[in-house]
Amino acid sequence: MSGDVDVAIIGGGLLGLATARAVLRAHPDASVTVLEKESRWGAHQSGHNSNVIHSGLYYAPGSLKARLARAGGEAMIRYCDEHGVPVKRTGKIVVATAEEQLPRMDALEARGRENGVTVQRLSRGEIAEREPHVAGVGALAVADTAMTDFGQVCRAFAAELTGLGADLRTNSPARSFTAAGDRTVVHTSTGEVRARIIVNCAGLHSDKIAEAAGHRPPVRIMPFRGEYAEIRPARRGLINNPVYPVPDPDLPFLGVHVTPMLDGTVHVGPNAVPALARQGYRWRDVDPRMLRELLLDPALRGLARRYWRYGLAEIGRSLVWPLFVREVRRMIPEINGEDLRRHGSGVRAQAVKPTGELVDDFVISHTPRAIHVLNAPSPAATSSLLIGSHIAAEAFDRLGLADLARDVRESPTGI
């Protein structure tokens, strides 16, 4: 199968599908193809996460994350309500388990308020009223948090896109790119796609796709595996709603948290372990080629130098079960190893600067014929509708459709 299209989107996760949706809702006559290398939508990051719709509490005021998270969360809740996807406003608490964490919690509270998040300070007694089994010297109650199933959101996006006339192709990895006049030819296992604009939403492979398309990415992708545990059914009553630790401000990870899911299970995690393959869901998943790149790439060597202590601690908690349990017990002292069982993992695509620093904000890089989404960490799932609109507006700019780009920017959610 081959064809000429206006926009070819590589990656069938939340961002790729949301971008296609935003393009077609604003421009129904556009031709859009979405290429997904797996057999289903949302097969990786979009389908392996905590399923939390975030509030915007954590993100630096003025950052793209902060601008998109608060409104993006509300847009996602409305979308789920209107499209039959399970969603529940739960709120959450962020707990300081030691006195030395209180200044970080103060800063987090101020940041949340600046971002327009509804935040309430809790004393020890108020923590006990909300979560009797949680230990903390102080906490923040965040009302604007919700739970959903992002795998179902992906499927809802795909069903909607079918009705909008999108060409949706699973089992269609983008293998190479060539130029042909004013188009870029994407060579796939299901034929060629000749696109005026390509949008790279390939997640864990986004830097490699950018390189294959002739763009030198300003960051590299390092995969981090997030491992989860599950609280056994008899002990699920230890937690009522999501409970998070106060995060380390020097790292783009939120720490091991406890999350009651919509199906009644209670998940604990994720940690953040350097993965040995881009789809390294287990320790035995090893990609020798990627390991060679790690040894040769100055950015990733710099990452190891900067964060080796943190990395060793996370590896220890991954390999030594009592260390993981001890981390959970900081918040829930009644938990013991018999109350928990391992429960799968996800792999996060984390961008790394040439200096070895972890990138915290979204990274979107451009060429005249391509838009490359090179870092889309949490809250990308939460904000996917708005990020999709943001990318669609940039695509319209490159297609010479300035009026459409302006309209999408002025009314970005499109739900």
TrEMBL record:
Keyword Metal-binding included in the entry's annotation: no
Any one GO MF annotation of this record: (S)-2-hydroxyglutarate dehydrogenase activity
Family matches, as Pfam families: DAO
The UniProt record lists the keyword Transmembrane: no
Keywords from the UniProt entry: FAD, Flavoprotein, Oxidoreductase
Residue ranges annotated for the FAD dependent oxidoreductase domain, each copy included: 6-393
A GO term from the CC aspect: cytoplasm
Enzyme Commission (EC) number: 1.1.3.-
Cofactor(s) the protein requires to work: FAD
Coiled coil location: none
Protein family per UniProt: Belongs to the L2HGDH family.
Record protein name field: L-2-hydroxyglutarate oxidase
